[in-house]
Amino acid sequence: MTKTVPISTPIWCPGCGDFGVLASLKKALAELSIKPKDTVVVGGIGCSGSIHNNLECYGIHSLHGRLLPTATGVKLANPNLTVIAAGGDGDGYAIGAGHFIHAMKKNPSIVYIVMQNGTYGLTKGQPSPTAVPGYEGNVEPPFDAVMTALSIQNTTFIARGFTGNQAQLTGLLKKGIEHANALRGFAFVEILSPCVTYNDTYKEWREQAYNLDAESSYSSKSRVAAFSRCSELLAGGKIPTGLIFTGESKSLETNTLTSPAPMALQDLRLETNLPKYEELLKDFR
Amino acid sequence: MATKLEQESELQSAVKNDITIMIGGQGGDGTLTVVNLLGRVFRDLGLNIYDARNVLSRIRGGPADGVIRGSTRDIYCIGDSVDILVAFDEEAVQAGLLELSETPIIIFDSSKGQLSEKFKKPGFSVYQAPLGNMAASELRRNIFKNTIAFAILGRLIGLEDALLIKVLNSRYARRGKEALDSNLKALQMGFEFATKNIPGSRYSLAHGDNSQRILSTGNEAAAFGFLVSGGRFFIGYPITPATDIMEWLTPRLPKFGGVVKQAEDELAVINMGIGAAYAGARVMVATSGPGQSLMTEGVGHAGEAEVPIVVAQCQRVGPSTGEPTKNEQSDVNHVVYSSHGEFPRLVVAPGTADECFFMTSEAMNLAEKYQLPVFLLLDQALCQNSASIEPFDLSKIIIDRGKLVNEEQLGKLSAYKRYEFTEDGISFRSIPSQEGGESQVTGNEHNEFGSVSTDKTNRLRMMRKRMMKLELAKKDLPKGRTFGPKSAKIGIIGFGSTYGPIIEAMQQLAEKSIDVRFHQIRTIWPILEDDLQEFVDQLDYVFVVENNYQGQLATLIKNYINHPEKIQSITKFDGSSFKPKEVAGSILSSISSKAIA
Predict the structure, then answer these.
(1) Inter-residue contact B87 to B108 (CB < 8 Å)
(2) Subunit contact A73:B279, Cβ cutoff 8 A
(3) pLDDT on residue B55
(4) Does the domain formed by A17-258 have CATH 3.40.50.970?
(5) Right CATH for B215-396 from 3.40.50.300, 3.90.1170.20, 3.40.50.970, 3.40.605.10
(6) pLDDT interval class at B63 (50, 70, 90)
(7) How many Å lie between the alpha carbon of A122 and the closest alpha carbon of chain B?
């Protein structure tokens, strides 16, 4: 067999939440028997954005904040691929926030993992969009991406995991990958993944994480209920986790693609298409 | 109800083999419809056509005009002056005044009053009719004034009535019987008016033998060139003057299993393009200067990560928002130098719609062969003005995907390295879904496998691997085209839409017994210095003609040739294209001051 990409050792500090994300992701991919050749992991910039280096599949490292357009391009070119975009909260909610909103609106069938830790760890601990007031001089309230995702009317899969709960996280990632691979749309999974060096929130998050999956009366099928329950929990100082919302809305590929053959693998030869091209020539007369 | 026509110069009827007509009014007056109808007339007569639209960056209203030229010879610009002006208001006369010949014909809509005396200059022939009022009273809609004007114009330039009826039929054939009937009625009104008020035609038009030619803008040609070259993924964000490319592809690309996607901004455009190209699609994006500013980081990323992508850059007046609908070539430095760090990029620049078609195709091949970003540098005039060209010869299209591997090739390798050091600097490129091609593609400096690396030796080798593509690509890059007698001692260099005015300036200078040689540059980066040196060495003086303030191309060229002192700039940056007489005049005054003529 061809020797291909050598897996790099993670760059993360011992105890970093991202190890838990990597482990869960590997487990989810393995349990779903998804082949490395059919998997593309798109990394952002920052500690979390190096996760593609630690996986044995196709990986592309995008620019800071631009992983969602990159991943969308990959998926449109070949919708048969499992496309996983993975980055941090600075990458996704600050410099790439515009793409975050529009990716949800476009609804490409990709999995978007945000490793949320309230800080810019790689640059040594500046407050990120999810930082709480008081952290490193931050005076702004934290951005809640789950609430934002709920407010966009065609989101189809919203979940939040915690690296402190591996079983739940693996389950959420599996569901997200299955959702995307069924071309049902954008699977957003925010993961609370503490930065042990600059913002060690393990203790707080263990107390704050509230598992909605365990609440028997909660239904992830209702956007209104999800919005209401999450608002309540947030107001009470809790962070809702679990499968928060699932809905139905046509995905970008379903809306856009016209050919069963992935664009990347089509027969582009001139002779194959010549009669149709000659027809187009008439548009110039 | 028609007022008596005024006619202020002597009648004369001459055969014209080159005529330029301007239609001016307010946006929404239907000026461009008359341009379209005249285009159909010229084609029927076998004439070559060039047309330009002068509009403001607003949806409706404001002065707007269209200019169309018909000629028996090849034309790639609006000539020096307008022979006939059809003006729907005085503002249009004012706007067109500087463009008029010394003996122009003006057809003026006098619905709101007679044309002011100040516009009736010696040599001017003014024909006045209340076009708008006639249309409104007989056909209940002011808009039919354009068809009435078309009929009067037709009589003045000696066209057969039947030809006008024919083109009206072809124009309105698919727009419903009502539209056609009303327009035919308007046409008859115009004829009747002319019969009563115009003693005879002023010109007759020569016939040409170019009826087989097609009419294309540069944007349309580039879009079609992309499609026939296997381009299947196009992403854009609306921006003048690039949007036409997206608009042309939107209804057509899906019929070929392709996708046109409008993204949220140009940051998304370039990165979505990179994602799709990485995954194996042939990708082009299109933008103008402001959009390129947003794409800048992405272009560098494609250079470092070695992802093939074509960026059509349709220049307009800058900086900032500038003048979105006006012509300029001020992004030479922008495409050649923008983005941090050093990486290879190619910049090719077609000069005609025909070249837009073929060079877009070449750009697609260059991007994949050398695995880098390629700029297709256009300018507003080239993008949006139409010219008659020979039908695109599809048999000349070649699709070369470079070192794209298949699974069989991958299976034979003991190790697949995406960024393998090779003799030619180009590594095999796998695409996702291929067994054995798994790899890392990254904008971080990396080793052969694509793993992040800061190793000094690796850095040196990787930089050289990438940068050597600039030298390697030279053999495949579009060479310049040279025109004019070898004996000439005066040279001109230009690119893009200046091609047309320069060719005609050469003819004007030749009539004054001044021989000029012209080198149309078609690769802006890397500079093909051997070609340029050979050209410059034959000459005493070389004028670089370009639509910008600083003489960006001239400055660039001077860095790469011996005897840079031979180079002088001729620049224009008022938002309009050069006229042939402006190029010729600048050269004449320069050489007369040097007394070398």
Answers:
(1) yes
(2) yes
(3) 74
(4) yes
(5) 3.40.50.970
(6) confident
(7) 15
